[in-house]
Amino acid sequence: MFNIDDYRGRVRKQERYTRRINQLQDKNIYINSIEAAVDGAILNIKEKNTRSFVIYGEPQSGKTEMMIALTARLLDEGMKTVVVLLNDNVQLLNQNLDRFRRSGLDPAPKNFAEILDPAIQLSGNEWVIFCKKNSRDLRKLLDKLGSPEGLAVIDDEADFATPNAKVNKGERTRINQLVGELLGTKGIYIGVTATPARLDLNNTFENDNERWVDFPAHPDYTGQDVFFPLSAEHLNDPPFILNLLPDSGDDPRFLREALFRFFVNVAHLNTEINDHEKNYSILIHTSGKKADHTEDYKNVVKTLNALKNESDRNFEKFVKEIWEIAQKRYPGREKVITDYVVANRSRHTIIVMNSDIDKKVVDFNSATSPSTLFTIAIGGNIVSRGVTFDNLLSMFFTRDVKHKIQQDTYIQRARMFGVRGQYIRYFELSIPGQLYFDWHKCFIFHKLSLESIRSGNGSPVWLEDSRIASVSSNSIDKATVSMDKGEMSFELFNYIPAIEEIINSGKGSFDKLIELKKLIGHSKLPDYLIQYIRSMSPRMDESLAIHPSRSITGYHDADQKKIERPKGFIGRSDLELEKFPHAVHHIKVLFNAENKARVFYKYVGSIRFLKNLKQFSHD
Q: Shortest CA distance to 440 belongs to which of 229, 195, 233?
């Protein structure tokens, strides 16, 4: 017999997330990182009552798949409306919306414009809604939604557009204000980004920086450890092709030669390595100005026209250049490779990716998932966020930066990160030398900061110097951020007498540091910190001071349990300048009455350490 009660309440609790995880497993996609991030987010919301926090993960490490799984879990846990915010670009929105829809998510995600019709009633149903971070679109969404019960906002590339750039003026930027109105007093805010510094230093939506969630990279990920290795040994012999360009000048020849090397590598892979022919792309990254995009486009077109036209005066010259590159890289195979390039020279696509894309019919997919054998993408700022390039084989930077570079901007520009392991030895990065080494230092600072978060010792610490800014200065909430503390610390451990025996031994400073790391463990004294100190020590042992340990019981303004102090522990007198006159790196172990301890690191020099001192209640 028909019974309507059999069909009421058919929302499948706790099935959508499980179904999505099973789908990923069936595709042999690594799920451990996704599960860790999703579990951490739900723990924040359900058990710790955290209303605003960040999920951070490396650029191009699979955050979109994580967000799909997170959306499914939020719905299973009872959220009625999940709003996914994306950067203000129609192509990016459509790409991400398509991926969410193809996942089989229930309910099927909607573009915000699809729900604006007055005939569509939102109450009583579940919704997944996509919206660009655009003031007009957000206003329309707000007018339709209001601030509904059971709302979660997932903010992709959360450090871009959302933070309040007027925080020190007592005003709010329009996007920040509208997202705040959307959240109301009960909405959950989850910022997702590879560069969370601005969200922290800006106090964006009062996100709790002690409850941030780490999204670890999957095992096949190639990121900063590959492209910006810390040790000099790996830097001198990287596993990819590093082509350093002159720091001044902008000769079109450099771009043309990079293009030809890309052709040669594609030819070698498809004639010698791959089981079947594959399409590849090269990303030409400009300064961000549209005029530069146009100039680079003209130079690429001019080169390809000459290569296709056998009567062109440059045809012989260009083919010979390709032959010579092939001979140098793959001796004995120069004719096969050159034959392949010439035979397939017309199988190319040139795609300019800039902010005019909304006004043109240009398919980003043909660049991000190469649709032709030789795919050439040209872009600046728009390709620096939210765009994943599959089968990216080369990246070419056409401009140097003549001013201070910003960490969050340049970390996001690392489009070469991702799944490159199968062809990493053929991947080429062409970049001005000074920019590469600034970028390298930028990632060192970033890694130090991320480890300070993972250590679980309170607010993260962000580093900057005369060449590298952590974030835009107008986004830093000066009311709560300390800019001169100058030290950072790592994970808690048990203090034992053997620590002092190492410190008081007659060994050199670096030997002491290595022994201390072996005794207390990597997470308490990370290898990358030791490598960084070594690489930044012009006088080796004399550049590093290992100070005697100290109890913090006498510090009445310190957090005795966490071993934290707003103004830091290592003051000028603690540096023991008479004993260590040449030291720029200082290490000190601080412990409490319960014999819990932390390693503290202080650098004396141009580096500034930024830390948000805002206190959150975790009762």
A: 229
**Dihedral angle, C-alpha 233, 236, 242, 243, nearest 10 °:** 170
Query: Two tokens at 182?
Result: 């959307």
pLDDT tens-digit profile of 229-272?
877 667 788 999 999 998 776 788 999 999 999 999 999 999 99
337 touches 326 (CB < 8 A): yes
| Residue 3: per-residue pLDDT | 85
Signed CA dihedral, 553, 554, 557, 558: sign only: negative
Residue segments in the chain with a per-residue pLDDT below the cut of 50:
357-359
Cβ neighbours of residue 553 closer than 8 Å, sequence gap 6 or more: 560, 592, 593
Task: Give the tokens for residue 543.
Answer: 């550049």
**pLDDT (0 to 100) of residue 380:** 73
Instruction: Report the predicted TM-score, pTM, of the whole model to 2 decimal places.
Output: 0.86
CA gyration radius, the chain: 27
Reference 222, options 450, 379, 62, 64; nearest CA is 62
What confidence score (pLDDT) does residue 357 get?
Answer: 47
246 contacts: CB under 8 Å, gap ≥ 6: 432, 433
Name 582's Cβ contacts closer than 8 Å, sequence gap at least 6.
539, 542, 543
> In this structure, are strands 127-132 and 348-353 parallel, antiparallel, or unpaired?
unpaired
CB–CB of 262/282 below 8 Å? yes
